[in-house]
Amino acid sequence: MSCSALIIIDMQRGMSETSVGERNNPDAEGNIYRLLTVWRKVRWPVVHVRHISRTPGSPFWPGQSGSEFQPALAPLPSEHVVEKNVPDAFVHSGLERWLQVRGIQQLVIVGVSTSNSVEASARMAGNLGFATQVISDATFTFAKHDYAGTYRTADEVHAMSLANLAGEYATILTTCDALSLIDFSPQV
């Protein structure tokens, strides 16, 4: 894998509150941290995406503790931060332009939630022509009822979202798969 931007979506304190419901991938934050550590080591671009709600009372409303980044995954001053008000990280955020100006053509997407902001952002990335990878064990989502009213576990919702993305919009990898593609040899 050549220089890819790591896009970390909505890893905010509000996503770790119990009120958000049953989730899958309890190790997702640890896998995101592993990827973030490597990206920093090889000095590849990192983009932190933060959801800022337009709904008063939301945990993601500006100034609420839920809108703050989770401390272990907080951006460094040198890392780019994008704020969004809708699920798609590209809409009205300047993200596409920021990537294009830097010649970045490959994206690795992690974060939450697979069935919402991750899926929306990965679809747009694929549609915009970016070579996009979504890391299955560094993303997570929540249980929900489908349109017919059938309860779906978080694992089921996650699996369907990844299936929706696979091939057409993104390549689905695990953390280990992604890390194995990075060449750590010194560049001459």
Stretches with pLDDT under 50, minimum 5 residues: none
The largest beta-sheet arranges its strands as 3-2-1-4-5-8
Largest sheet: 6 strands, parallel
Shape field: globular
Number of strands: 8
The N- to C-terminal Cα distance equals 17 Å
Care to describe what's here?
With 188 residues, this protein is an alpha/beta fold. The protein has one domain (5-180): Isochorismatase-like (Rossmann fold). It is 29% helix and 21% strand. The chain is built from 5 helices and 8 strands; from the N terminus they run βαββαβαβββαβα. The chain has helices spanning 28-42, 95-101, 114-127, 154-165, 175-180, and strands at 5-9, 46-51, 80-84, 106-112, 131-140, 144-145, 151-152, 171-173. It has a 6-stranded parallel β-sheet with strand order 3-2-1-4-5-8, with helices on both faces. Strands 6-7 form a two-stranded antiparallel ribbon. The longest helix has 15 residues, at 28-42. The mean pLDDT is 93. Keywords: Hydrolase. Residues 4-175 form the Isochorismatase-like domain. GO terms for molecular function: hydrolase activity. InterPro entries: Isochorismatase-like_dom, Isochorismatase-like_hydrls, Isochorismatase-like_sf.
Brief overview:
This is Cysteine hydrolase. With 188 residues, the protein is of the alpha/beta class.
Write the layout of secondary structure elements.
Elements: E1 5-9, H1 28-42, E2 46-51, E3 80-84, H2 95-101, E4 106-112, H3 114-127, E5 131-140, E6 144-145, E7 151-152, H4 154-165, E8 171-173, H5 175-180
Parallel strand pairs: 1-2, 1-4, 2-3, 4-5, 5-8
Antiparallel strand pairs: 6-7
Helix pairs in contact: 3-4
